[in-house]
Structures are given as structure tokens and as C-alpha cells.
Amino acid sequence: xxxxxxxxFIFISIPYLLFSQNAWxxxxxxxxIKIYNRHSDVSRMDDIKVELDLPGNIYQVADILxxxxxxxxxxxxxxxxxxxxxVSKQEFIYYSEVEVPWPATNRDFYANFKLTFDSxxxxxxxxxxxxxxxxxxxxxxxxxxxSKGQWNVTTISDKxxxxxxxxxxxxxxxxxxxxxxxxxxxxxxxxFENLKKxxxxxxx
Length: 204
Fold this sequence. Notes:
By secondary structure, the chain is an alpha+beta fold. The chain has one domain: Alpha-D-Glucose-1,6-Bisphosphate, Chain A, domain 4 (2-Layer Sandwich). It has helices at 2-21, 58-66, 177-202, and strands at residues 25-30, 33-38, 47-55, 78-88, 91-98, 107-118, 123-130, 142-143, 146-157, 160-170. Strand 5 and strand 6 (107-118) form a beta hairpin. It is globular, with a radius of gyration of 19 Å.
């Protein structure tokens, strides 16, 4: 009888333990922007989730995200970003170099960008997936071995949308802990504050 009870409690505890290990933890909140982290099973850098409301509509923010060559104007630490190959209006490959504070080395990556609209639901999903072997690594740069960004943007009303962004990232090479922390909280906060300002300007 005791053995049966013990086994029962083990099994009902497993889902709770698994959920706890992967639970998001709110790390920072400012100007309506929430930054969450959770332990990553694939990188020493925590996964990142950003959640916020924005003024405007899904097509406005989609246009900003498609215009990758302007990422250095608003995306944290983006030194350059350029379109490499256009597959369609909503799918392409791009290249980016990311500035990393000394003594670490700048990173770069190629990524496949694919955006899918759901017009009926007035929403879209965007996946940006790193392609570490697309072209040889450049001299004096560290190639990012893993990068997966997921955007989910939904309509709340005619003048407001809700955005959820999730990033899995392995920066590769040697990176001090304090630099990882910059990219876990400061970087996402500045990036989405800039994005929010761009959307506010469009909807004045």
C-alpha cells in the first residue's frame, strides 16, 4: 500500500517539476515592457521572452521587421544588417554583425526570416532561424552557433496590438557573465523601447 502511494506521488509530481524547471521568471519591467528569462537546455545563456502592447496594427510592425537593413537604428548592439537572398516578399536570408563589449569579440550570424500572416485572426508569426554554416565565418568575428527568434503579434483592437518575442541564443566562444547579462535584460529592454517609439511615431 505504501509503495503504491509513493509511486502515485512521484507521478503526479513529475509534471510540476518539469514545469518548474522551464518556468519563465520576470526579470525586468518598464514602460509596459516585460522581460522574462528561463533556464535554457541548449545554451549557457538563458532563454528570453519579451511581452508588450504596441499602438498601431500588425502590418506596421511587420513592415519594420521586414526592413532588416534598418535594424542598426533600433535593435540593441546591431552593428550592421544586410539582405542576402530574397526567397519571397515574406521570406529571405539576412546577415548581421553584433557588437559585443571588450574583451569579448563581435558576433555574426546568417538567418532565415519567414513571416506568416493570418488575415482572419489579424495576427502573424515570424521565425528567424540562425544558419551557422550558410557561409564561412569571417576573420576576427565569432559565428553564433544557435539563434532562434519567434515573434507572435496579435490584434487587440483597431489601434492596439500585442507582441510576444522569444529568443533562444548561444553566443558561442568565450563571453563574460556580465556581458551575457547585458544581452539578457538591457538589450531586449532597449530594443523594444526603440520599437515602441517607432510605432508611436507612426500612430500620432
